[in-house]
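Worked problem 6 (solution included).
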Amino acid sequence: RKVLDNFFEPAKKADPEYRETYLAIGELALAKNDFDLASKAFAEGLGHFPDDADMHFGLARAFAPSDRIPMIASLEKALACNTNHAPSYLLMADHFIDAEDYKQAQNTLDEALAVNPSHPEAWSYRAVLAHLASDTSGESTNRERALANWPNNPSVDHLIGRKLSQKYRFT
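Solution. The predicted structure is:
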């Protein structure tokens, strides 16, 4: 709260048209799991920058844990502003995996990989989909592709493990 009050609020008052301030406030709020503050920061930023894909994406991330309908609406707006916004495709794919719509998740990942063919997160999601389809060869290949540019990237295994742990059912 002190960072917000001492740094970001004065910066926002000094230059309300500086885009990065709204993004920084929203990202800080997301990092602290304050989704209400994040949604307010991104919504305020959208008041100044209505066609900013990053603002719409931030708003989608603020809604992701609680309300999927406005999350999807925000992602669609982000993609309308920038059809090459890979993070929006990835969040949408994450949603489709959660909804067990694996075909749509695969199509969305194809869109993300068309933007960036070596995106580690997209290949990680592909590894998840391969695992869920009991395709061990595909899972291994996709994981290797995710690690191609940074062999020790911890976010690859973290993402794969997090998504797969959400799919396991225990009695």
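Discussion: The chain has a mean pLDDT of 95.
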